Each structure stands twice: as structure tokens, then as C-alpha cells.
Amino acid sequence: MLKVGALALILLLAAGCQRPIGSVDKPVLGADLEAGREAIVTYGCGSCHVIPGVQEANAYVGPPLNKFEQRHYIAGNLPNNADNLVYWIQFPQSVEPGTAMPNLNVTETDARNIAAYLYSQ
Ligand code: HEC
Q1: How far is CA 69 from the centre of its chain?
Q2: What is the largest CA-CA distance in the chain?
Q3: What does the alpha-carbon distance between residue 82 and residue 29 come to, in Å, rounded to a whole number?
Q4: Cβ atoms of residues 21 and 28 within 8 Å
């Protein structure tokens, strides 16, 4: 019984260590890259951004979103980590009131998938 408890604790700790939020060099856990790519098309991010692997995304209203994992800041404002990227995608107007990027009512799940996709490019 004790062994089972210890094993459960170890598994729990291991799962905790894999939690990627807060670190740029790890993927967003549980995210679906293909769903992220599709969400980018659905929300029309490509009407303002160039995004690798998304043919429809070829505009320069906002900055190109290539090599996003290597950026230090999001919109020159938030430290670049998964939590902040998900937040920015959902609420750019809360981060920078008046920015040209609109709040697009992106769901948390879609924002996580999109963030994971951007970090993968
Ligand atoms: C109407 C145009 C527009 C749309 C649509 C738009 N964005 Fe943006 N986006 C911008 C602009 C402009 C900026 C620069 C904001 C700033 O720096 O203040 C930006 C910034 C960003 C950044 C930070 C870029 C950097 O270099 O730090 C990310 C990430 C981003 N957008 C993702 C998205 C995603 C994902 C979507 C779709 C859900 C989207 N954007 C839709 C205009 C847009």
C-alpha cells in the first residue's frame, strides 16, 4: 500500500515538473498543433500576420510571427512565456489598450493550441 502511495506521489511530482506554463522552451502541454493551425485560419489572424505553415497568413499589419519561441517579449510588453502568450492572444486590448490587434473572442482552448503552434514554428 505504501509503495502504491509513493508511486502515485512520484507520478504526481513528475507530472508537475512537466507543466510547461511559464517557460518558453517547452511546449504548451496537452495542446493540439493542427487544431492551433486551423484556429489561426478560423480567427483570421492571417489578415494581419505572416505565420509560417499557414498559407492564408500573409499580411504585414502586425509583425510576422515566425520563430516566436526565440522572442523575449510579446508585443514588446509581456515576457514571452506560454501563460502570457495565451493571455495576449485572448486579451490584447487588456495588455495594451488601443493596440491595433483586436480582442477576437478566442477561447482558452483555442488560444492554447494557437500558442503551441506559434512556438512550434
Ligand atoms: C487587425 C489586425 C490583427 C489581427 C486580426 C490579429 N493581430 Fe496579432 N497583432 C496585430 C498588431 C498590430 C500587433 C502588434 C501589437 C503591438 O505590438 O502593440 C499584433 C501582435 C501580435 C503578437 C505579438 C507579436 C510580437 O512580435 O510580439 C502575437 C503573438 C499575435 N499578434 C498573435 C495573433 C493571433 C494568434 C491572432 C489571431 C487570433 C492575431 N494576432 C490577430 C494585429 C492583429
Answers
A1: 10
A2: 60
A3: 10
A4: yes
The helix/strand/coil state of 68 is helix
- How far apart (Å, rounded) are the C-alpha atoms in residues 39 and 98? 24
CATH architecture of the domain covering 20-120: Sandwich (2.60)
- Pairwise CA distance, residues 111 & 34, whole Å: 13
| C-alpha 101 to ligand 1 mean position (Å) | 5
What's the pLDDT tens digit per position in 47-71? 999 999 999 999 999 999 999 989 9
| Ligand 1 touching residue 111 (CB < 6 A) | no
Instruction: Tell me whether residue 88 is exposed, middle or buried, using C-beta atoms within 10 angstroms of its C-beta: 0 to 12, 13 to 18, 19 or more.
Output: buried
Q: Using most ligand atoms within 8 A of CB, pick from 28, 49, 69 the residue to mutate for ligand 1.
A: 49
| pTM of this structure | 0.84
Q: Are 61 and 49 in contact (CB under 8 A)?
A: yes
- The radius of gyration computed from the CA coordinates of the chain, to the nearest angstrom, equals 17
Give CA angle at 116 (112, 120), nearest 5°: 170
